[in-house]
Amino acid sequence: MRKSISITISVLLVGFRFAFGQISVSNLRCELLVNPIGVDKEYPNLSWEIKSSYRNTQQTTYRILVSESKNNLMADKGEIWDSGKIASDSTVFVSYKGNKLKKDTRYYWKVKIWTNKGESSWSETAYWHQGLMNYKDWAATQVGEMPFKDWGGRWIGFDRMFPWDGNQSENRLSARYFRKEFKPSGKIKSATAYIIGLGLYELYINGEKIGNHVLAPIPTDYTKNVKYNAFDVKDKLKEGANAIGVVLGNGRYYTMRQLHQEYKIKTFGFPKLLFNLILKYEDGTEAVVFSDDSWKGTADGPIRSNNEYDGEIYDATKEMPGWNKTGFDDSKWLKAEFVQEPGGNYEAQLSENMKVMDSIAPVSISKISGDRYIIDFGQNLTGWVKFSVQGKKGEQIKLRYAESLESNGELSVANLRDAKAQALYILKGSGKESWKPSFTYYGFRYVEVSGYPGKVAKENFVAKMVYDDIRTVGSFESSNALLNQIYKNVWWGTAGNYKGMPVDCPQRNERQPWLGDRGIGTIGENFMFDNARIYKKLLNDIKLAQKTDGSLPDVAPDFWRYYSDNMTWPGVMLLITDMLYQQTGDFSAVEETYPVMHKWLRYMKDRFMTADHILNKDSYGDWCAPPVTIEAGRGISANQKFPSPLISTAYYYHFTNMMANYASLQGKGEDVLYYKDLGEKIKEAFNKAYYKEEGFYGNGELTDNLLPLYFEMVSEKNSNQVFNCVINTIEVKNKGHLSTGVIGTQWLMRTLTKYGRADIALKIATQKTYPSWGYMLENGATTIWELWNGNTAAPDMNSQNHVMMVGDLMVWYYECLAGIQSSATDPGFRKITMSPEFVTGLDFVKASHHAVTGLIKSEWKREKGKIHWMVSIPANSSAEIYIPTSSLKDVEESGKSISTIKEIEYLRNANGKLVFKVPSGDYVFKF
After folding, report:
1. E strands present in 252-395
2. What region holds the Alpha-L-rhamnosidase concanavalin-like domain (predicted)?
């Protein structure tokens, strides 16, 4: 049987993985995941994935060709860059090193590799489009005028409210509509539209919406940086007159809450637009259609109000048919006005926009009273409802969104705080109409419909699931149905809270990128989602939010001014950096984060560390630890802080170890010595201050002991006693349950497993009584609650769609139950550590993760007293396999004794497990 090697090709930009197409030697399957148009980096990174039916396939050499001409590339000519044959096994983060790249230019590339099993053919062709790289690349010259004037583009908008907007305290502001007609002066070779529409935009050319995204661009601190999107629109243009139309929504630019909280909430101003359409003609000339006061605009359109918290009001009687097409009479529209630019640097958006990712039909519709109905979609999700209707002009349909119902069947909206979370649609009365909002989203399972003319039928309503357009790259299934359903709940909650940044919740008047809600959980998320770009963007948001003195916020971008000076929330920056480095091999995350963290740790030490090395500053403690009983927390707000210097000191110690490691990787010898010395002093002080002779730390709480155990702060002579205290707390005091909040839950499952008690971890994971993830499911949860007692706590802080209580559960699923873990010494899954816990109580586990190197699988089952374990290791990677037996004779691979398999190398015996080095390929072990 003929075996083959094939390549999947992609572009990585400063650490971001863009998969443009999956290309084999014989055929092409286009799989566009991220728009490759509009790249602003001088030296993009390139990557490819090797697929081989040979075992032990290792790349030895590659050659990359880059060309402006697709024909040249097909002829194997790379006039922009021919790397030549490079002896290297690298397949990701391969830096472009060719000629200087030009703005607004498409580059085609391909790669060929040589391996120890032979060479591949050239890959199929991929491309990226270099965008606008500098401020002055945003041209402001009339169509046909050459050369470009030496100044940046012009921002347009209306920096004022209109009479129908009400007053600012009501947070009502209508959408702005802008239009421009133009005629190309020649035959078009290429046409690229560049747009910064703040806060949100929809772009149309000749009446057709450009792109399948929604709620774009992604949010930033607009005073620091603003993101542009770019689109190839050549096929949308025609000879003669063309029309550009842009609708601007408020997003986060026109703040969701005005005036009464200026001390807390950043405000930016009114919506505004910067636009360039670069036309390149066949004769070699160029022109730009740009935003200026020749555009016409109005705010008197159908979107009368749009607010992320409160929803959208749409008056279909105000629609303007043909407004975004040529020939529209805009004589009553206003002249667009020049407005102040937002202040932030212009940057290409290298992470995904949001998109409608799924559609969900109603499961039931119930009449409440009068014309009010409740639609149940059966799943808590984020997005909106699209409906169709037929009625009379002026009739009004009102939608109200909520996560749950009261006992009388009414919507439960108390946990929304003052977010209205509603929509109002006014019919135009011209036959069948359909509508969805444009510039808001909701967190909901239930929708109340009132004023709907005719029958409220299931076929007229559909829920649209909206989140960042990122791939699901992981799967998990086990013999335990509860574990499987928890996984699904985590998936829904995690996906729904990707909103151009990871937010805490999607329903109430918050929706903020709280840093403490993530942390270790991001590793589990990365096993599930191809989310590296959104977290690389978050690292930059944190970096831009750092104050001159070194302080970091609890929220980034810092839309809320929360600089509370604590270790656990800002310190998530280092945990996310570690996730990106370990999971994807992106060392640039380390290089870019290190100086920020170094400055912050010095700041915290100088201000808050005592002379005896206790970090005496914390803000939240073990945030939202569960009340002792479900009744003890009834009606009580969870918004209570219990600062813990034990937690802040332990975290500072952990960070010194991480920083020493990263200093070493960067060759910063003085920093290595500094952090190691400081860490030893903190460790000594910590044990002196918090260790009790009875064998526990602090007050003996679960989190108090988990942290020093996982961070290896406990002396060898005391570690068993401290761990026994952990087990006693869980088994006796908690009757087999956890008692951790946001901090402790991040270290719970792996600490138990690390110290040999995966059985206790499984017991916690499969509990159905309070407090547990299973308890949430038993009480109707379809995502993960903010609180362990989410069914009894006061509603002021009680989201039913949060991820902060997931902790390290998903990490435990993948790394411990399935045994898929990236090696600490060779990150990015070049070397994989595979050591599953074949824990009693599970009959099988099946998991996969599509890493940057390729697809990894681990599937094991019990059968007739034996373990059958199927493993897939991607080409150009290897694994260390841990098998819990003491005899080589007990292990088979594909029906043969493992000692006879030439590719597999026995390494050692580690704590009763045989360790083997296994190269790439598919294997079936039996023992």
Report:
1. 272-281, 286-290, 296-298, 303-307, 311-315, 334-335, 337-338, 345-348, 354-360, 364-369, 372-390
2. 367-466
468: left (phi over 0), alpha (psi -120 to 50) or beta: beta
Query: Tokens representing 16?
Result: 């971001």
- Say how far apart CA 514 and CA 523 lie, in whole Å: 17
Could you give the CA distance from residue 562 to residue 575 in angstroms, rounded to a whole number? Answer: 20
SS3 199: coil
Q: How many CB atoms lie within 10 A of CB 84?
A: 11
More confident position, 469 or 144: 469
What are 153-185's pLDDT values in tens digits?
699 999 999 999 976 667 789 999 999 999 999
User: Could you tell me the two tokens for 768?
Assistant: 């159905």
Number of other residues whose CB lies within 10 A of the CB of residue 95: 12
Q: Which residues contact 262 (CB under 8 A, 6 or more apart)?
A: none
Tens digits of residue pLDDT in 383-425:
999 999 999 999 999 999 999 999 999 999 999 999 999 999 9
Where do the H-state alpha helices sit in 729-853? 742-745, 748-754, 758-765, 773-778, 809-811
Please write the tens of the pLDDT for every residue from 636-693.
Answer: 999 999 999 999 999 999 999 999 999 999 999 999 999 999 999 999 999 999 999 9
Asked if 687 and 721 count as a contact pair (C-beta separation under 8 A), the reply is: no
Sorted by sequence, the CB contacts under 8 Å of residue 407 that are 6+ apart come out as none
SS3 assignment for 545-580: HCCCCCCCCCECCCCECCCCCCCCCCCHHHHHHHHH
Q: Which region holds residue 467: left if phi is over 0, alpha if psi is between -120 and 50, else beta?
A: beta
The residue-averaged pLDDT of 915-919 equals 98
737, 730 contact by CB (below 8 A): yes
Cβ-based burial of 30 (10 A; exposed 0-12, middle 13-18, buried ≥19) = exposed
Cα 697 off chain centre by: 35
Bridge partners (DSSP) of residue 615 are 609
pLDDT classification of 866: cutoffs 50, 70, 90:
very high
What is the three-class DSSP state of 71? helix
The pLDDT of residue 643: 97
691: three-class secondary structure by DSSP: strand
Cα distance between residue 433 and residue 431, in whole Å: 6
What does DSSP assign to residue 394?
A: T
Residues 765 and 752 sit within 8 Å (Cβ to Cβ):
no
- According to DSSP, the residues that pair with 65 across neighbouring strands are 82, 110
| pLDDT in the model for residue 146 | 41
Q: Across the strands, what pairs with 86? A: 62
d(CA 255, CA 267): 6
- What domains sit in the chain, N to C, each tagged with a CATH number? 5-130 (2.60.40.10), 135-350 (2.60.120.260), 356-468 (2.60.120.260), 474-815 (1.50.10.10), 830-926 (2.60.420.10)
